[in-house]
Amino acid sequence: MTARRPSFPRTLLEFQDRFATEEACHAYLVECRWPDGFRCPRCGESRSYTRKDRRALECAGCGHIASVTAGTALHKSKVSSRAWLWAAWLLVSSKGGISALELSRQLGLSYETAFTMLHKLRRAMVAPGREPLRGRVEVDETYVGGPQSGPRGRGALGKSLVLGAVECRGKAPQRIRLRVIKAADRPTLHAFVRTVVEPGATIVTDGHQGYGELSGYRHRVQVVGRRGITKDDVLPGFHMAIGNLKAWLNGTHHGAMRAKHLQAYLDEFAFRYNRRRNLGAAFPRLLGLVPHVGTLTYEALYARDPKG
User: Which of 12, 165, 274, 284 has its CA 20 to 30 A from that of 206?
Assistant: First the structure.
């Protein structure tokens, strides 16, 4: 049975009214953490007491202390819960998302703090065990970034190579998966497809031979000039989705992402793109995902690159 999700604020005024205090924010986090009601992981008791710092519940049966934020982006954070909920809301409520610079201005935080918060929330966007793509799936590679993004790639100086799979209905893209790769070789391409696409699906690619001998899938190849195929006929859903990706990266982040952080931005785009018809619902979904994916430490985020 799917766990009940807490309702989400649909307007800015509703958000301000609902999360006006730290107490209200913590009540919402408890609801996200235990959507079917608190249950002690040690003894199963449903009764609990709120601790003084409000970031933990004490089991009324055995006294076990259950953290509300353990394993989440908020754990041990000195930033208020109100600021975290505002950051999550601003991240998903705008179709274009929000940059660290804008978040720092909106919430009165340092740029470094805003940058760290956004990356921790992006980490929560990748759900373990998410459903694979199915049906007709277009797969191809593209280059993303600019001269600052990384070393010379195959045919694209200074850009990062990104592998994508787009689930399509007709020519319309539906869900998407994206991954930064080092090379478009056969082992990498096959491993990606097997990870993100349901066996038995129809894989559509261009003439790249690296997709050859991909067992367990129906494989269709589209090459310009073959059977009257034009350039516009080759992977239209993939190119439409990737066009949106590049426009988003340039529009929201002005193409200024470093290569080591690119996967996080790709994860955010996929999260937002896959929920584009009901983006507001991603707010509780994002908070609900956080406990399952672990935290992103400051050391890991800024390793060898203090400026982010």
Answer: 274
